[in-house]
Design brief:
The protein is mainly alpha-helical and 118 residues long. 67% of the residues lie in helices and 0% in strands. The chain is built from 6 helices and no strands. The protein has helices spanning 5-13, 16-21, 27-42, 54-69, 71-78, 87-110. The longest helix is centred in the C-terminal third of the chain and has 24 residues, at 87-110. The chain starts with a helix and ends in an 8-residue tail after the last helix.
Length: 118
């Protein structure tokens, strides 16, 4: 899974991948949320497919959760290169963070570090 192209620069500017993989990031909490959000979205997929576009919805929900928690803002403000020049930019930062969590989640599932049936 790749972070969408239009969000990759933000992800790199804020080192979101490293932030999500840091020991201070509550991975288990967010990975459990990914599982819950994916299950809720699957209810609305009558054929039982797990379409790739569901990741967009999950990334948005995780981004909103990371925003509500406040840790993303703290991380962004510590980053001297971060430019938060308005609500649209902040929304893209939150969405990029959601994708970074999903990317880490997928990596952990593929490597047996997370059992998606928690």
């Amino acid at each position: 899974m790749r972070i969408p192209a239009h969000l990759q620069q933000i992800s790199q500017e804020l080192a979101l991948r490293s932030w999500v993989r840091s020991s201070s990031f509550p991975r288990e909490t967010y990975f459990a949320s990914v599982d819950i959000f994916k299950a809720r979205i699957a209810i609305h997929q009558p054929d039982g497919d797990d379409p790739a576009d569901s990741y967009e919805l999950v990334a948005a929900m995780i981004g909103a959760a990371v925003n509500a928690e406040g840790a993303l803002l703290t991380h962004a403000l510590k980053n001297a290169t971060c430019n938060i020049d308005g609500p649209d930019r902040w929304s893209r930062i939150c969405l990029a963070a959601g994708w970074a969590v999903l990317q880490s989640y997928e990596h952990a599932c593929n490597n047996g570090e997370w059992n998606h049936e928690h």
